[in-house]
Amino acid sequence: MSKNKQTVNERELTANQFTNVKDIKGNFLFSKDGYLFGYLRVFPYNLDLLAIDERRIRTQNLSLSFEGDRKDFDYCAFPRELDLDDYKNYLKKQYQEELSNYGKRQILAIMIRQAAELSSSGENYEHHHYFKIWARAEKNINDTKKELLTRLEEFKQRYSGVGIDAEILNETEIFKLCNLFTNSQQVSFMSTADNPVITPIPMIKDY
Questions:
Q1: Taking a C-beta distance cutoff of 8 angstroms, is the pair 46, 165 a contact?
Q2: How far is CA 114 from CA 8, 55, 81, 88, 95, in A?
Q3: The whole model's pTM is what?
Q4: Distance, CA of 100 to CA of 91 (rounded, Å)
Q5: In this structure, which long-range contacts are made by residues 175-182, counting pairs with CB atoms below 8 Å and at least 24 apart in sequence?
Q6: How far apart are the C-alpha atoms of 98 and 198, rounded to whole Å?
Q7: How far apart are CA 7 and CA 1, in angstroms?
Q8: Spatial distance between the Cα atoms of 79 and 77, rounded to a whole number of angstroms
Q9: pLDDT per residue over 4-57, tens digit each?
């Protein structure tokens, strides 16, 4: 075996040993140390569109639904870089086709400049919000799966009850989440306390 090939194999072995993922199947990630993980994605929702009273009611209801529940779950948010090329091409096409309306043409020109500045500034990202819920795999693995799915459904209902969409990740989406987490080009590691851009979804504000 050549020295270069041996070096590559050693790197692959180190990565395999470091990774705690045994398998991803259905709605679950199976870890090497005997745990099952399920994931729920919570989609963005603009509370600023609501009246203050309605905002207070929804946040209070969501807060109460989490009261006393501290069992085996974690919240995380990952910034993901957006590809604005299609959007910029669309604006350019609209600009080129708009010949009669000078005002609209000027607005499109401003939007094109803003999109270009956003792409070059490094701030063209959105945040994906997830809950991670886990349980130790018991002898009857189906019981563990049932327990996790029940928990995931409970979390989903908490958010749907206040008008916020959420989905339980399937096998394909869990793979995407793993890629999002491990891709250093798109994910920066930051705490919510250090970055005011990220606001944990469960956080309740007083109005």
A1: no
A2: 44, 31, 17, 10, 14
A3: 0.64
A4: 16
A5: 175/24, 177/39, 177/41, 177/128, 177/130, 178/21, 178/24, 178/29, 180/78, 180/80, 180/128, 181/78
A6: 38
A7: 10
A8: 7
A9: 545 545 555 444 555 688 889 999 999 988 999 999 999 988 787 788 999 899
Tokens of 188: 């920066």
3-state SS, the chain, equals: CCHHHHHHHHHHHHHHHHCCEEEEECCEEEECCCEEEEEEEECCCCHHHCCHHHHHHHHHHHHHHCCCCCCCEEEEEEEEECCCHHHHHHHHHHHHHCCCCHHHHHHHHHHHHHHHHHHHHCCCEEEEEEEEEEEECCCCHHHHHHHHHHHHHHHHHHHHCCCCCEEECCHHHHHHHHHHHHCCCCCCCCCCCCCCCCCCCCCCCCC
Report how far residue 101's alpha carbon sits from residue 98's, in angstroms, rounded to the nearest whole number: 6
| Six token digits for residue 49 | 């569109």
User: What digits encode the pLDDT tens for the residues 84-102?
Assistant: 778 888 888 888 888 788 8
| Residue 145 to residue 37: CA distance in whole angstroms | 9
171 neighbors 25 (Cβ within 8 angstroms)? yes
Q: Which residue has the tokens 């043409």?
A: 105
Cβ contact 128:77 at 8 Å: yes
Distance CA 165, CA 159 (A): 7
Reading the block at residue 138, the tokens are 């018991």
